[in-house]
Amino acid sequence: MAMHLVFEKPHAGLQDSYRDLVREFLDAGEPLVPFPLAFPNEDFRSFLDRLSACARGEGIPAGFVPHTTYWLVSDGAVVAVSNLRHNLTDRLRREGGSIGYGVRPSARGHGYAGEILRRTLLCAREIGLAKALLTCAKTNVASVRTIVRHGGVLESEEFVPDRAEEVQRFWIDLAPIPGTL
């Protein structure tokens, strides 16, 4: 992992790097995870305004919840993106969970998934969540390992017809560790 990592909310200073990250997902034929990667970003100011509004719970579609997007930046490049849902709906309990995250395909294997998850879990605790639900495809072994390494306890798995695959659900307890703030 690179020495200089920054965890931050999206901003215009990294517009080109962010767009490169989205392009890498598309070029690899991979789904855009987390879902805000699919938001149009041609007008980057409007894109940033939309992300800010989503975090405030403004202008979100029916059935959605307020959610905050974060970037993990390594040496000036956006290497990972996470999305923290501020609460859960029945649909998110089935698939989606409290946190979604994705790592730029060319940056995988360097510990960025674990780092963005760790930092997003801290944000989840800061907004008052007692536990976080993470869901992922059973076949996504790297993500399963990352979730378990960060305290994920398997609750269940279910075949999701829309995805045509088994989805696993893990809970991570966010209770403060005794002796820490």
Shape: globular
**Mean pLDDT figure:** 93
Largest sheet: 4 strands, antiparallel
- In whole angstroms, how far apart are the ends? 27 Å
What do you see in this structure?
By secondary structure, the chain is an alpha+beta fold. The chain has helices at 15-27, 44-56, 90-94, 112-126, 141-149; strands at residues 5-8, 67-74, 77-85, 99-103, 131-137, 153-160, 165-173. The strands form 2 sheets. The chain has a 4-stranded antiparallel β-sheet with strand order 1-2-3-4, with helices on both faces. A hairpin with a 4-residue loop joins β6 (153-160) and β7 (165-173). It is globular.
Can you lay out the helices and strands and say which pair or pack?
Elements: E1 5-8, H1 15-27, H2 44-56, E2 67-74, E3 77-85, H3 90-94, E4 99-103, H4 112-126, E5 131-137, H5 141-149, E6 153-160, E7 165-173
Antiparallel strand pairs: 1-2, 2-3, 3-4, 5-7, 6-7
